[in-house]
Design brief:
Elements lengths: L1 H12 L3 H9 L4 H5 L10 H29 L4 H26 L1 H13 L10 H15 L4 H24 L30 H49 L1 H13 L6 H4 L3 H56 L4 H41 L7 H14 L6 E2 L3 E2 L2 H20 L1
Length: 434
Amino acid sequence: MFERLVKGFLDFCETDDIVDNIMRKDYFYSPFVSGLYVNLKEGYRIMSIALLVSNVGISMFHMFVFLRTTLIVAKYNFTLMTFLFQLFMIMQFTVTVLAVATLRRQDFRRTHREMLGEFFDYTGEDHTELLRVLRAEEWAEKKRLLLLPVFLCVIGANCMLLAPILDNRYGDFRFDRHESGFFTDVPIPLAYPWEIRDNERTFYFVFLTGLQLATAFFICSLIGSATLACINVISTLNLHIKYLIRNIEDIEGRAERLFASLYFGKPGSADRNFTDPRYLSCYKICLNKVFSHHQKILFWKGLIQSVFSVPIGSAYSTGTLVIALSLLSINTGTSLPGTALTSTMMCILEVCIMALISVLGQRTTDLNEDLRRSIYNIRWYSCNGPIKSDISILQEVSLRPIVLKGFGLVACSLDTFSNVMNSAYSYFNVINAF
């Protein structure tokens, strides 16, 4: 038992140069900064763990303060209450994602090392041009999605800087915040659970403003890096499925090229090839590589499900509530223009993130359907009995859809996105009725 714990701890602390390089080049160090993937390399270990602990501690502290302030404000200003509760929900989402990423660190590392660091190799075959074309197509689709993390930073800056200015100058809070125990010197005024005297205001302004800025930076960096990881990993899974489909569609051409390299000559006509045992052996070798690649894809899908199941499910559930509360803040927020503006931006961002997850998940499912059709469209009827049996097994396995699920229950699909939008609007109507 003790040996297993030690082995698990050592595996957890293991570092990988390939993965570390991906964190630097593809994610611009954001997983290291946010704690999504703690840098445990010697020389950075203590600093990274200290940063992780401080981020979690400050976030948990603010979750308590925001919830306390929300309960106080509920008696006076419904718009402000819904806005503060939105921020509380977003903070609990970031802590949840961080906890899952930490617990699933090994799977996260292995996913990036095998899928992104070491692309599947069809030994003896040159697919350089095919991979170049597929990667260009992937980047054309992916680069538009990378605007979401940038938009997230804009919202964070607006929430901390612009919204308080607009609310203080043009808003009406409808209650005396000082009498209710609010400390109004900080960017987001909150009711802290201790009394702040006049001679202490300067110290607490610097200290509490620093904590709020640290929390805002942590939230933006973690959600941004998690969004980048989700885009990168699922897009790469889809790239692998496309790569597999192209190799299945070209299996006869691959078999002919292998035949030419092994037997120093071209095979006969397409119909005569399937009666040539040498060609069939080449065909079998190419088919076995397809099997290996498909098995890898199924394994990687399991790793992705292990790492992203809870974050995706939490994104759907948290996003549904945040959208409903944002609509309430917008609907009732004429007295607080800064709060209404931030709620509008948060609503748009949540819709975009859930649409992103749904579109990527739907794309994976659709590609699995394309895979099944590509298997059926090869000339399986011309093959001999053993190869027909192999193709039948591959066809049977491909009938099981590759579906990414939040909490292992909610499929990432456009249908789910539609249901989430309907649920958010229903919550808005129910709460607004009161």
